[in-house]
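Example protein as discussed:

>
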Amino acid sequence: MTEGPQNAGIGAVENGLHTAHQLDDDDGAKHDSISVKHIEVTSQDSYGDKLRVEHIHGRRLYLAFLGWLMTEFMGSMGGNMLAPAIPVIASNFNAFGQLGWISGAFYMTQCGSMLLFGQCSELFDAKYVLIVAILFNMLGSAISGGASDVTSLIVGRAVAGIGSAGCYIAVQALVAYLVDLKYRALIFGLFGLQNVIAVTAGPISAGAFSDSGLWRMCFLIVLPLGTVAIILNLIVMPSVPPLPLTEEMEQRLQKQIGGFPSCTRFVKEREWAKRVLLADWLGFILATGSLVCFVLAMQWGGSEYAWSSSHVIGVFVGFVAIGAAFFFVQSVVAWPLIPLRVLRNRTVVGSCVMALSQFMCNLFAATFLSVIYEAGYGYSSLRAGLHVIPYFTVIIGAQLAEGVVLAWTKRYWYWGWTSPMIIAVGGGLLYTINSSTSTARLIGYQVIYGLGIGLTQGIPIVAVQADSKERDIAQALATLAFTQLFGGTCGPVIGSAVLDEHLRANLKERDVPASTIAEVISSVNIIKTL
């Protein structure tokens, strides 16, 4: 996954790891202090040694880093950098009511794909996993950039989400495999600098493209970046041999396919077939299918169909049933996307709930602040982009400050309940705004809200590392990121459903003709004229 406010949550995994390594042992209570012995997440640090991969240095490292940086930036372009442009893009297709789908489709497939790409980065050569992910991102961006209707746009966003997940995971794996340990903190720090640049320049660029009628460039700009990144990956980076299959893995795989004798014989003779079957493809399909049902329910409810209609109830039932099937599959496959044992740890469960809620709140604001400025205040996309920059930048600043405070106090537990309170206060203030609220006050409210988002960002990551067994840390962090992205899917979709339902109801109360209501629902430009 990518950097940016989108990744201020997801990409905070690295920040959490580095913050955790800085913390000293303490004699405090178990949940109040962080013990280094519980936090030394060295699985990535030891990958290169286990595989005996030669680290790259000098010019090769510089060129590889340039390719990784372009890859990270590509993912940022698909995330919140597009926020100011999305209302205009939706209106171009007379599909303002599909705003939640246009934004949420990206995170929906990203959520399901991230865990699968995590497996693939260990099962196959991470160099080529990254190239495949970049190609997915480019394909999705090309579909979105050339879309002639909103359905094509949403499909493109979904495909790009798959690629974005793979880009994020593969880049992190390659840094761990190919970069000497003493340089990794610098590499991740420079990724953070790219994050700052992206959240500052991204909304402005997206707004400028939209105002100029060139909104398709928001997607098509990914194509040259991806091309250069692939060339650099092919030329500069060595192949990274996948992790060797353990005897336990082979035994579990044998048990899984034992009922198919011909398949068993074929797999025994071919290691690549073992690796393909070890990846949890069924889990990925079920996870994504469950998310699609949830998004459909939230998108249809109250707008296209009544909440009590068979359509909405049916997809809600599908969401629960497919979700239950997903967790059953996780209990029986050879290598599950989410090992169920990590969910027996209440700290992991609580951290997942916090991460889901936090990222949902983040995406509420990231998506709909631009709508407020464009529809409520009549601003252009460029001007809206300028006004949401304070929200994005305060998140990054709060994250950095939180890392310093955690390193100094060696306490994380108290932040777990105080930081969300700041989000609640900021959200309450944002709830009070109306068309007469000054932009200065609105910016102040979004800064308070963003402060809470940023201070909450790294707490679940540090908590999971502090209270998990060493062998479970990687899986626990992956589970945390999965639930976080589920929150990212929920935020825009739920927000769009609420906006659509209330907009219809309020317009009906004012005796607005049905034809005008339909026009308002389809375009942010019509809302500006009311």
